[in-house]
Amino acid sequence: MILQVVLDTPVERVFDYLWYGEDIPLPGQFALLPFGRREMMGLIVAVQHDSVLTRDKLKSVIAVRHQLAPVSADWIALCQFAADYYQRPLGEVALPAVPKNVRLSKTVALDRALKKLDKKQASVVASEIPILNPAQREAVQHIVTATGFNASLLYGVTGSGKTEVYLHAAAQILARDADAQLLILVPEINLTPQLQAHFCARFPDICIATLHSGMAEGERTYHWLAAHTGKARIVLGTRLAILASLPSLKLIIVDEEHDPSYKQQEGLRYSARDLAVWRSRQLGIPVVLGSATPSLESWQHTISGRYTKLNLPQRAVEHAVLPEMRLIDLAKDKPVEGLTASLLSALKKRLDKGEQSLLYLNRRGYAPVIACDACGWMSSCSRCSAYLVLHKQEHKLRCHHCSLELRIPKTCPTCGNVDIQPLGRGTQRIEENLQQFFPQARIRRIDADSTRTKGSAQAAFETVHRGEVDILIGTQMVAKGHDFKNLTLVGVINPDTALFSQDYRAGERLFAQLMQVAGRAGRSGKKDDGCRSEVLIQTRYPQHPLYQALKTHDYPRFAEDCLLERRQAGLPPFIFQALLRVEAKELVQSIAFLQQAATVLEQDALENGMEHIVMHDPIPMSLMKMANSERAQLLVESYSRPALQVFLKRWIPMLRQLKPRLTWSLEVDPVDI
Fold first, then answer.
1. Nearest Cα to 472, choosing from 498, 438, 444?
2. 47 vs 2: CA distance, rounded Å
3. Cβ neighbours of residue 170 under 8 Å, at least 6 residues apart?
4. Spatial separation of the C-alpha atoms in residues 463 and 335, rounded to whole Å
5. Which homologous superfamily is 324-366+425-500+519-548 in?
6. Tell me, what's the pLDDT at 656?
7. pTM of the model
8. Backbone angles phi, psi at 383, to 5 degrees
């Protein structure tokens, strides 16, 4: 018997192996195989009697994982689509999507996880089921009555109760189908505990699995097996969960669908949101994309009729209203240590009332750079085109790109001047200044630096929920998904830098971030002395159209303006892109390879009549040097997605034939250019 398998290798081919066992393996099972001088796990994609190679040239299978049920043909088809669309071999998609313990030569860890599946899940106290408002009921009704593939954009203001819509829809689908499985995606790991708590409390007798990259390998194996065997009827996870094996999947939900974290930036550069839509179409099931600030791609799909828009126009909690948005003109209200008098006054007012405040600054560390006034020296990273960020508490200068760490110099390395100063502000510096302004306040900072250890982020958020924090300082980690009942004030510090970014998506992302973080305020709906929750944004450009739309919570107006600009400029979602990136020791090598690649492109386009393909000149990347590699990129565009895919399938093999002594990668539908 001949087993055809795919392996986790850059070689885009199927390998034939001999099988002499009595039990004939099935497509979808995993097999341990000899490959060169090592052993590798492979996925069986076909079983047949003959091979194009003679049997003396074939190696024998070492073992087949018979204790594990095969993955479905639908799952293999999903991986095949991802491999084709994102231009990767099937093995590089399918095998990494499976936990490492399944791919080990020894089965001890796998067998242990399988035995653990038989244990009963710990009981949880059921929560009360709130009554939905008319808009929520209409959204739930649309989701549960949809037949076949149906893509819905659940567009609701922050605090409108999107999670309750998910919970009610899940309850009805699980009740009518005893085997149904649901997949709910969230953009970040720190959002999973809160969502998991909601689902566990609502479904105390149902097995719920969680999948994300922060899990220990044994834990991830158990949860993957629970999903694969059908024991887990609800699966929560980050982007990698979209490739989970789910034999009875009936509904997919993508929460905060606009978030760029859904796009993988290494290896297989896939979009979990886009794969969720494709997987729903493949299985003929509904998919729900939820957001208060939808991506422009999804918004355009509602305009074109491809997606159904479900509106939640008001907050779900009685008396809860959207916060008042105020713009603080920095030209008139000069900041002291980064904080204006208006913001400090508002903070004091909330402290006196016993309410919580949030200061949002999407820049961690103490200061972005330290500098010498005498000679102009600045703390540049020797390995990157970036500055070393001052982390005062750790007494370190740290590069946030390559992780290089140095001690803080006592004098200027260039001229010996002792007066070197930090420039700009990060979350650590704001925390230090706030402690001086409000020495009695309980201040907590939550960012990637303060939550490095496992479980620390969840513990930090719990202190806020318990009311043990008066002022919370944070980056985008605190901007979305969290329901702080007593938080009534949000202050935004230094958002203007995104207004002048060369990235055309920067404005869209800034608007989403500010709308999301503003939505943390005033969610409880409690009645007070008439002091409405508020959001104060410190800016030097209060008349900017982005801020004016934000001031009135008018996402549709902002999206309409952005889509008009994108259409006129020929940018996504009205054009389709692929980005070829190159890393080499010297920039000249990167540019030379891209020029060679462009020449191959031009010749192929002429020979095959691919006039719909547009090629841009090779250019250095915005962060040109990183970790001692100098990087460049080449952008390819087309108004036809099929035409671009046809071209890429011809182009990639040509690039591989060049065999350059450098690193290159291709990203389809890039999010950072």
1. 444
2. 6
3. 182, 184, 199, 202, 203, 234, 251
4. 29
5. P-loop containing nucleotide triphosphate hydrolases (3.40.50.300)
6. 87
7. 0.93
8. -110, -10
Q: What is the C-alpha to C-alpha distance for residues 484 and 461, in angstroms, rounded to an integer?
A: 9
Residue 500 DSSP SS3: helix
Tell me the mean pLDDT in the region 425-431. Answer: 95
Model pLDDT, residue 120: 64
Tokens matching residue 661: 């002594």
Judge whether 289 and 151 are in contact, CB under 8 Å. yes
* Residues forming beta bridges with residue 236, ordered by sequence position: 184, 210
Q: What is the pLDDT of residues 480-500, one digit of tens each?
A: 878 888 999 999 999 998 898
d(CA 480, CA 460): 15
Q: 134-312, which class in CATH?
A: alpha beta
**Stretch (H or E) spanning 667:** strand 663-668
Give first-to-last CA distance, the chain, whole Å. 49
30-35 and 63-64 strand pairing: antiparallel
- Please, what's the largest Cα pairwise distance for the chain? 86
Is there a common fold for 134-312 and 324-366+425-500+519-548? yes
User: What's the half-sphere exposure (Cβ side, CA atoms, 13 Å) at 524?
Assistant: 14
Instruction: Tell which residue, 568, 549, 565, 554, has the closest CA to residue 505.
Output: 565
Identify the bridge partners of residue 5 per DSSP, sorted by sequence position. Answer: 15, 44
Euclidean distance between CA atoms 278 and 149, whole angstroms = 10
**Residue 124 confidence (pLDDT):** 65
> Do strands 38-48 and 2-7 pair parallel, antiparallel, or not at all (unpaired)?
antiparallel
Is residue 280 within 8 A of residue 507, CB to CB? The reply is: no
CB neighbour list of residue 624: distance below 8 Å, 6 or more residues apart: 385, 587, 630, 631, 632
Three-state DSSP class for 328? Answer: strand
For residues 495 and 146, what is the distance between their CA atoms, to the nearest angstrom? 41
What would the 3-class secondary structure string for 451-496 be? Answer: CCCCCHHHHHHHHHHCCCCCEEEECHHHCCCCCCCCEEEEEECCCH
The residues pairing with 115 across neighbouring beta strands, listed in sequence order, are: none
Nearest to 114 by CA among 221, 27, 236: 221
What is the DSSP track for 264-282? --SSS--BHHHHHHHHHHH
For the beta sheet containing 356-360, the strands, ordered from the edge strand earlier in sequence to the opposite edge, are 324-329, 534-539, 487-492, 356-360, 471-474, 443-446
2-95, superfamily in CATH?
PriA, 3(prime) DNA-binding domain (3.40.1440.60)
Distant-in-sequence, close-in-space partners of 34: CB < 8 Å, separation ≥ 6: 59, 60, 62
